[in-house]
Amino acid sequence: MNKTELITLAAENSGLTKKDTERVINAALDAITNSLMNDEKVQLSGFGTFDVKVREARTGRNPHTKAAIEIPATKVPVFKASKAMKDLIGK
Considering the entire predicted model, what is its pTM? Predict the structure, then answer.
């Protein structure tokens, strides 16, 4: 499912127009993104948790030349599904 399909399905289920639904979904995604940019965790009960993890700097290898390269530390967004979500999907 892509964003357009999500908006269409959410609009059908909520009774809102597609434009209003798109605004709501965009606002929710912006709020989640801004929280993660500020290193804040976002917990949605029954759905899951969005968080930011730090990947430590490490040494990697160029697969073509086998030369060692330094990979810098970076922050990456992660999502962990809630137990309720895991139980629903696992059925």
Answer: 0.81
Q: How many CB atoms lie within 10 A of CB 44?
A: 12
Cβ density class 60-70: b for 16+ within 10 Å, e for less: eeeeeeeeeee
Amino acid code (one letter) for 45: S
Nearest Cα to Cα of residue 75 among 43, 47, 45, 33: 33
Report pLDDT digits (tens) over 53-89.
999 999 999 999 999 999 999 999 999 999 999 999 9
Q: Is 8 exposed, middle or buried (0-12, 13-18, 19+ CB in 10 A)?
A: middle
CA 27 from centre of chain: 14
